[in-house]
């Protein structure tokens, strides 16, 4: 009887142990499944992030190409402008040498006061420096002045350059 009881107790212990093993296996299988789901989710997010990186890298390269192109065009334009400045500066030196010193001094003073423009064309009775039409008395004074007389605008005080289009 004792042997049968011992065998029965061992059978119960074995069944309980096997149930514990099955429970642990099921628990581990569930945990493994949960972890595998997490891995898949992270892989999907990573793939999406990689696609975004690829897209943005392409966009950055495109913008950089546009920047490089604009920079090259700017540099070419600056080079052209520098060439024009050198040419105009030489021309100005030649012309300035023929202008009387007192007139050149006046011009430079006015140019400094008026943002780089010391003389303005008189076009159809209007000073192109200040865009003001000259009053009739001013026009009469300009008409009466000798061709080599320096006349100035009463409004902005720039030197007026008279031409056939002055409206005199």
Description:
- The protein is an alpha+beta fold and 168 residues long.
- It has two domains: 1-98; 100-162, no CATH class.
- Helix content is 71%, strand content 8%.
- It is built from three helices and four strands.
- Strand 3 and strand 4 (159-162) form a beta hairpin.
Rounded average pLDDT:
94
Low-confidence residue ranges: none
Strand order of the largest sheet: 2-1-4-3
Q: Give the strand tally.
A: 4
The helix content is over 70%
Number of helices: 3
Radius of gyration: 47 Å
Largest sheet: 4 strands, mixed
Structural class: alpha+beta
Q: What percent of residues are in strands? A: 5-15%
> H/E series, N to C?
HHEEHEE
The domain tally reads: 2
Overall spatial form: rod-shaped
Q: What are its keywords?
A:
alpha+beta, 4-stranded mixed β-sheet, 71% helix, rod-shaped
Topology:
Layout: H1 2-98, H2 101-113, E1 119-123, E2 126-127, H3 136-144, E3 151-152, E4 159-162
Parallel strand pairs: 1-4
Antiparallel strand pairs: 1-2, 3-4
Characterize this entry briefly.
By secondary structure, this protein is an alpha+beta fold.
